[in-house]
Amino acid sequence: MSLQAVRGTKDILPPEIEQWHAVEAIFRDVAREFAYDEIRTPIFESTELFKRGVGEETDIVGKEMYTFEDRGGDSLTLRPEMTASVVRALIEHSLLRHSPVMRLWYAGPQFRYDRPQKGRYRQFHQFGAECVGSPNPESDAEIILVAYETLRRCGCSAFTLEINTLGTQSVRQQYREQLVAYLRQHHASLSADSQRRVETNPLRVLDSKDERDRAIIADAPSILDVLDDDSRAHFHAVLSLLDVANVPYTINATLVRGLDYYNHTVFEFTTTELGTQNAIGGGGRYDPLFAMLGGGDVPAVGFSIGIERMLLLREHEQGAPSEQERDGVYLCAIGEAAVLPAHALALRLRRQGLRVVTDVMRRSIKAQMKEANRHLVKYAVMLGETELADGTVVVKDLHSTEQQTVRQSELETILLAS
Ligand code: AMP
C-alpha cells in the first residue's frame, strides 16, 4: 500500500506556497498597522481547556476534536481553534498586568474532525486576532476592521459582513428561554439534530441549514426585540463605527455562532462563491471566557479567518496567479575544473543577497541552460576553461538573450545593478 497524506489533510506544494507567502505578508502588514503583536501557542493543549473554553455542548467539543491520551496518561487535544489557547496564555503569563489592553494576532494550523470536502479539511489554517481588555464598542469595530482590511488586501471582495448582537449575558439568557419555549411548540416539525439542540444548545438551532428548520426559524422570536438599553447602545455604537469606516454590513438576527462564550457583537464574513462552505471567517465579543478559564473579569473580542477558504475566494476572484517574475542567477559550471570555483562564486553571490541556482548533476551546458530557464532566473553565469584562465565569466541575460564577458570581480556590480 502506498503511503498518502491522511484524509482531510493536504500538502502545500511549491507553486501554491507562493500564495501562502503572499497572504502571510499581508497578515503581518495589517497586524503591524493596527499595532497587534504576534503570539504562537502550542498545537496541543490539555483537553480540559477546550471543554471549558469552547463548551461541552458545541459541535467542536462534542464531535470534532482530535483528543488522545499521551504516554503519561494525560488527555491532550490538537487545538480546534485559537481563542481558548490565547486566553490561557494571557492568564498564565499575567500579560495584562502591565498593560490594560493586549492586541494579539496569530496564524497557524487547527484540527477538526469534520467531513472533508472542498474548503473543509481536518487540518486547516486560521489567521486571527484578539483585542483583550476593553468592554467598549471601539474594540469590536477595530477587530472587524482588521479582518475586513485583511480580506480586502488579499484580493477578496465578493463577501458580505453579517453582524448581530447576542446582548449581555442576561439578555442572552432571557432570549434563550423565549426561543426554547417557541421551539418546543414546534418540536415535532424540527429536524432530529435541532430537536436535540433545543435542549442542549438552542441558539444553534438558528444556524441550521435544514429546510424544515428554516421555515420554523423564520418566525422565531428575534433577539433584537429583547435587547436591553445597554445592549442596544453597544450594538448601535459598533454599527456607527463601521459606517464611519465605510465598511458595509448586513444585520442578520439569526446569526449566533456556535460557541458558548460569545456575548454582544457576533459577525461572520460569508460568500456565495464557494458553494456550501460559505463562511470565510467570523468572530465576536467573548467577555465571559476569561472567567470561565479562571482569569477573572476581562472583556475581549476577536476573529479568525480560514486561510484555505480565503485563498479559494481570492483565486476565484483574481484568476490563476500571474506568472512568476524572473529572479536570480543560474551558475553554469562547464567541465570538472569549474566545479570548485563555481561553488565559491555561488556563495559569494548569495552573500550579496542574490538567489543562485547551481548545477549538482554535472550536466552539459545545453542541459544546464534548459534548467536555468526552468528555474526562471534572470541571468545565466557561465564559467568554463577559458574564463577560469583569464578571471572572467560570461553573463547571459535570459530575457533579452544578450551575452557579455565580464571580469569576475565586477560580477556582483553587474548583477545587482539591474
Ligand atoms: P469558526 O471559528 O468555526 O467560525 O471558524 C472560523 C473560520 O475557519 C471559518 O469561517 C472557516 O473559514 C474556517 N474553518 C473552520 N472549519 C474549517 C475546516 N474544517 N476546514 C477549513 N476551514 C475551516
Main β-sheet: number of strands, strand sense, barrel status?
8 strands, mixed
- The percentage helix is 25-40%
| Shape call | elongated
Radius of gyration: 28 Å
> What is the helix tally?
15
Give the count of structural domains. 2
Bound chemical compounds:
adenosine monophosphate
Sheet/helix structural class: alpha+beta
CATH architecture of the largest domain: 2-Layer Sandwich
CATH class of the largest domain: Alpha Beta
What is the terminal separation in angstroms?
51 Å
Residue stretches low in confidence (pLDDT < 50, at least 5 long) are none
CATH topology of the largest domain: BirA Bifunctional Protein, domain 2
Number of strands: 16
The portion of residues forming beta strands comes to 15-25%
Q: Could you give me the name of the CATH homologous superfamily of the largest domain?
A: Bira Bifunctional Protein, Domain 2
Mean pLDDT: 94
Description:
There is one protein chain. By secondary structure, this protein is of the alpha+beta class. The protein has 2 domains: 14-168 and 228-318, BirA Bifunctional Protein, domain 2; 329-417, Anticodon-binding domain (Rossmann fold), CATH 3.40.50. It is built from 15 helices and 16 strands. A hairpin with an 8-residue loop joins strand 9 (263-270) and strand 10. The two termini are 51 Å apart. Bound molecules: adenosine monophosphate. Adenosine monophosphate (AMP) is lined by residues 81, 112, 114, 120-121, 124, 126, 279-282, 304, 306, 308-309.
